[in-house]
Amino acid sequence: MARRQVVGARVRQTVIDLWGNECWLNLPGCTKVGEEDDHIIPFKAGGQGTVANIRRACKHCNISRSNRVLSGYGATLHVVMGPPCAGKSSYVAEHAGSGALILDFDRLAEALMMDVDVKHEATGPLVATAQGAWQGAYNKLARMNAPVEVWLIKSLPSTRAHPRLLEEWLALDYELHVVDPGAATVFDRLAAEHRNEGAKLTARQWYSLHLTQELLDARQRARRARLAELGLRNQCERIDARPQW
């Protein structure tokens, strides 16, 4: 196993001179002050200890990020969120490119049982297993260093392992998409499709968050302005300035 690369003092000082010593990641729990040298393209993915690939991070964020990629520096990650019966899977089918990897909880649950409509008869063991499968696949996709398009379908921006996923997605510059036709439409669809109580509870939890595309766009613009200051993207909305593969 290759040892983790030690960043030279001259490289570190140049990084601080160019981009400062504030933690670049700003993940939940960030202490703000740069204490360690963080590889933008992770060392395990071949990232080098160069000025272009190093930014300062606090110890908490460096550990929390692990080797998850900044979207576009490896996989380009999208998250489609919204209540059950909103049309998230249809949105992904319409917008995902050819060859995209798509992580969908409902598809995982369906693959675990035969001849059972899991949307109507989801049992505790099935839900727990599907949640574990989703988390395991997410952990892999979030670290994907290949130039692949990844779409995550997730009703709520949290899991037990990562209760503040939304802040993490913003920090790592995922493309965020809200699909929500409105509460009246969603609850009418839930009733018409005889969806289980778990789906109805998830819908109520979604609407308690008051998330909108406009709100997420504003937060993402602020984050991308910071990434531009750090030399990690330009000011345009898309990812054209990121490394070409």
Question: What does this molecule look like?
Answer:
Pfam families: HNH. The protein has helices spanning 9-19, 59-65, 88-95, 105-112, 124-141, 165-171, 183-192, 197-209, 213-229; strands at 36-39, 54-57, 76-81, 101-104, 149-153, 175-178. The protein is of the alpha/beta class and 245 residues long. It folds into 2 domains: 9-66, no CATH class; 76-220, P-loop containing nucleotide triphosphate hydrolases (Rossmann fold), CATH 3.40.50. A 4-stranded parallel β-sheet has the order 4-5-3-6, with helices on both faces. The relative contact order is 0.15.
Question: Which terms would index this structure?
Answer:
single chain, 245 residues, alpha/beta, Rossmann fold, 2 domains, two-stranded antiparallel sheet, 9 helices, 6 strands, elongated
Question: Short description, anyone?
Answer:
The chain has helices at 9-19, 59-65, 88-95, 105-112, 124-141, 165-171, 183-192, 197-209, 213-229, and strands at 36-39, 54-57, 76-81, 101-104, 149-153, 175-178. By secondary structure, the protein is of the alpha/beta class. It holds the Pfam family HNH.
